[in-house]
Amino acid sequence: MCTNVSGSFALGVVLMAVVRRFPPTSHLHPFVATGFLGAYTTFSTFALETAVLARGGRAGLATVYAVTSLTAGVAAAWGGLSLGRTLLPARPGDPR
Known about the structure:
Structural class: mainly alpha
Order of helices and strands: HHHH
Distance between the termini: 30 Å
Number of helices: 4
Largest sheet: none
Number of domains: 1
Shape: elongated
Number of strands: 0
């Protein structure tokens, strides 16, 4: 779970940096999101860990793990975007 949460945070910061530095038509946005950070975090690992817990008779723990992972990941991504907005100035005329 730590890898996915830290990856969500890093994705928020890095994507904000890319958005603030490059035009919105840039192909860099999807490369960073799916290529670079996708290699660090994977949904498949999260899904496998949840399924293993559920199949092992630990459905309650699997549910807690899934909900906690999703909540922490979204919160971390939001925190990363917020930090990126704070640290990186917007381009002139950019409302983001």
